[in-house]
Write a structure and sequence with these properties.
Largest sheet: 9 strands, mixed
CATH superfamily of the largest domain: Dihydrodipicolinate Reductase, domain 2
Number of strands: 14
Strand content: 15-25%
Number of domains: 2
Shape: globular
Helix content: 25-40%
């Protein structure tokens, strides 16, 4: 079947009334006019699902009362009508059962991070994706930024030498106040270990940092030492963490994350210092990348300059230089790669997951290993823990 002659169809689990990230996924998935939303189970409350479906102009018969029913009914539809992939935008605890159900129904999966609730679930999901051969996408959207891709190319091509020190910061103030006690839905599940898992801020934004570090440096973290804190009373999960890192290549690193950092909005930054040079990138000003080379003037590269940026950077640039391009476009770049992979799978040429230019199930496993290793380290008095030993 030549999938390149039609739009792909997708469904969504989660993302109903009162949700934030579902709308972001719907915008990103449709930005290139390559896919359209046709089905969903947007909430455990079917009235919410019906209302969301109505507002999105969906066929009421494809607004399902449960994700299990959705997978069953969609898989039974003719190939030209059923969904080609499903997008999972629910709290962490439900990621695994939903992904498992759709994969076992033969449907490709796009999933929010962290990938699963537990490390054992992550390992089972790796096995399931390998067994089914289906496409699995994890939406660490920051890897979609053009200048992040350029920074990665600089290290892949050894232009900046081997990694000596890497520092990632992700600072927010979203948990400064006990909004969960005021009924704020997005806060309630994030501070609840029954829905979030054993990591709070470690899972919510720490996994983004780990993914970004390993993506840009192409140098895996092998060992970490974590100190976590919870400041507000009655909370059971971490709100703040400082983590020392050791990389496979011999470099060292530091990760500082917080959701109680007063006045910060979405301050994600990455600094990587190599033996021949360094890079600095900030998510809140994503259209510029500082590059340092020893003995030379500092450079500030800006997005959109095809004459000096790498192929992956220019391939993921959407608009001319000088026009701000950011969060939604980076998200859409992840979807563009994901949709191409799904098309190839439909046409019988899925390719290897290791060749995908988007995060997948193995990156999801790395994120879960980080969460569990960091929690283990913090609980043991900040002892060093190997990421692959948990």
């Amino acid at each position: 079947m030549d999938s390149w002659k039609r739009k792909l169809k997708f469904g969504m689990v989660g993302g109903g009334q009162g949700a934030f990230i579902g709308a972001v996924h719907r915008i990103a998935a449709s930005m290139d006019a390559q896919a359209e939303l046709v089905a969903g189970c947007f909430s455990r409350d079917h009235d919410n699902t019906r209302l969301t479906g109505q507002q999105l102009y969906l066929d009421p018969s494809r607004c399902y009362e449960s994700f299990a029913r959705m997978a069953e009914r969609e898989a039974a539809l003719p190939e030209d009508r059923r969904i080609d992939f499903v997008v999972i935008v629910t709290p962490n605890a439900s990621h695994f059962p939903i992904a498992k159900t759709f994969l076992e129904s033969g449907i490709n999966v796009v999933c929010e991070k962290p990938m699963t609730y537990s490390l054992e679930q992550a390992r089972q999901l790796v096995e399931l994706v390998e067994r089914t051969g289906l496409v699995f996408v994890l939406t660490h959207n920051y890897t979609g930024h053009p200048l992040v891709k350029h920074a990665r190319e600089l290290f892949l091509n050894n232009e900046l030498g081997t990694v000596r020190k890497a520092i990632a910061e992700y600072l927010q103030d979203g948990l400064m106040m006990p909004l969960e006690k005021q009924g704020r839905k997005q806060t309630m599940w994030r501070v609840d270990p029954e829905q979030s898992g054993i990591g709070g801020t470690l899972a919510d934004i720490g996994t983004h940092c780990v993914n970004l570090l390993e993506y840009v440096t192409n140098d895996p973290i092998v060992e970490l030492c974590a100190d976590t804190s919870t400041f507000l009373p009655d909370r059971r999960l971490d709100e703040d963490a400082n983590v020392l890192l050791r990389f496979k290549g011999g470099g060292k690193g530091a990760l500082t994350i917080s959701q109680i950092a007063t006045g910060e909005e979405n301050a994600l930054s990455l600094r990587v210092y190599g033996s021949q040079g360094a890079v600095l990138w900030r998510q809140e000003t994503p259209d510029s990348l500082s590059v340092y080379r020893y003995g030379q003037p500092r450079q500030v590269l800006t997005r959109g300059h095809r004459e000096y940026l790498s192929g992956p950077a220019t391939a993921n640039t959407r608009i001319p230089k000088g026009h701000p391009e950011g969060y939604l476009e980076a998200f859409a770049n992840v979807y563009r790669g994901a949709i191409a992979a799904v098309r190839n799978h439909i046409d019988g040429d899925p390719g290897r997951a290791s060749d995908y230019d988007f995060p997948g199930v193995y990156e999801g496993l790395r994120g879960m290993q980080f969460i569990h290793a960091a929690v283990k380290s913090a609980q043991s008095g900040s002892q060093w823990v190997r990421m692959d030993s948990v």
